[in-house]
Specification:
This protein has 327 residues and is mostly helical. The protein has 2 domains: 6-186 and 295-323, HUPs (Rossmann fold, 3-Layer(aba) Sandwich), CATH 3.40.50.620; 206-288, Tyrosyl-Transfer RNA Synthetase. The protein has 12 helices and 5 strands. The longest helix is centred in the C-terminal third of the chain and has 29 residues, at 295-323.
Length: 327
């Protein structure tokens, strides 16, 4: 039997996972563990490229581990670890920095957007962020990377770096393919932008049912429905887009018909969604509680993951150093 293809993805330690993260990425990652050799890392080194509170970072990393394990990333089925616990990432990053033209870094969309806001305060780490991301991927010789459409440029940069290295030192790194997930693009509660913690328009996966309902009550719906008797159009309703994430097809069709025929009000629609959403979130919240009561088990899982990751990364790095003429 041929070995399974390897994939790599990073998890930002940026606070509570929300349903946009879960349905947009994590749910898909859990599916991928069935068919791929999966490496998932909490990217604490990437978190250093912008201003942050060093006193809060350890808790953010810990919360990311608990949330993602609770959401289904089982250490028995995938390798999950903390990025900074595998120093081969930063060592390969330096080797790749030495083959990266500066002009390519300046052309990266994320750098152009963030540097325009920060001006002279922009950090060199933000400029070199794509090189570290490429090192993250190439150090595991990943076959594919699950990405959203907004991340394709960074992955193409990784592919270009692999080509540059191979052209200069010999065919070594595979060019990772983009694995475009089937995860949803989840809009925020205001319906104006993608769900984001910075926009404060989220539903966290660990929130209690009452807290979730308090957020749903004022959430944006179809603006054409001023009264319950007004017919609506499900395609214009943000809450209906949420229903597609958790509501069974047969029930979904009934909600659409009720919206168009004004037999279901917006509050009723939100109550049905709330019920179906909590069927998904309740088990996750309970698993997180259980994990939080077993911190040693979580630490052991992360340490085991780092050991497995280092074994793979060390072999890759040694081969790259040898090709580059390093003893």
């Amino acid at each position: 039997m041929s070995p399974r293809q390897r994939i790599l993805s990073g998890i930002q330690p940026s606070g509570t996972i929300h349903i946009g993260n879960y349905f947009g990425a994590v749910e898909n990652w859990v599916r991928l563990t069935k068919d791929y050799d999966c490496f998932f890392m909490i990217v604490d080194l990437h978190a250093l490229t912008v201003d942050y509170d060093p006193r809060r970072l350890p808790q953010r990393v810990w919360d990311a581990a608990l949330d993602n394990m609770a959401a289904g990333l089982d250490p028995a089925k995938c390798t999950i670890f903390i990025q900074s616990h595998v120093p081969e990432h930063t060592e390969l990053c330096w080797l790749l920095t030495c083959v990266t033209p500066l002009g390519e870094l300046y052309r990266m969309t994320q750098f152009k957007e963030k540097s325009s806001r920060e001006g002279e305060n922009v950090k060199a780490g933000l400029l070199c962020y794509p090189i570290l991301m490429a090192a993250d991927i190439l150090v595991y010789r990943a076959d594919a990377v699950p990405v959203g459409e907004d991340q394709v440029q960074h992955l193409e940069f990784s592919r270009e770096l692999a080509r540059r290295f191979n052209g200069r030192f010999g065919d070594y790194f595979p060019e990772p393919a983009a694995l475009i997930g089937r995860g949803a693009r989840v809009m925020g509660l205001d319906g104006a932008a993608k769900m984001s913690k910075s926009m404060d328009n989220i539903i966290g996966i660990g929130e209690e049912p009452e807290a979730v309902w308090e957020k749903l009550r004022p959430a944006k719906t179809d603006e054409a429905r001023k009264r319950r008797s007004d017919p609506g159009e499900p395609g214009r309703c943000n809450i209906y887009s949420y229903h597609k994430l958790v509501t069974p097809e047969a029930e979904l069709a009934g909600i659409a018909a009720g919206c168009r025929g004004a037999t279901i009000g917006c509050i009723d629609c939100k109550k049905i969604f709330h019920r179906n959403l909590m069927k998904v979130l309740d088990p996750i919240r309970e698993r997180r509680r259980e994990l939080a009561l077993r911190p040693d088990d979580v630490r052991d899982a992360l340490n085991d993951g780092a050991r497995k990751a280092r074994a793979v990364a060390r072999e890759t790095l040694d081969g790259a150093k040898k090709l580059m003429g390093l003893l």
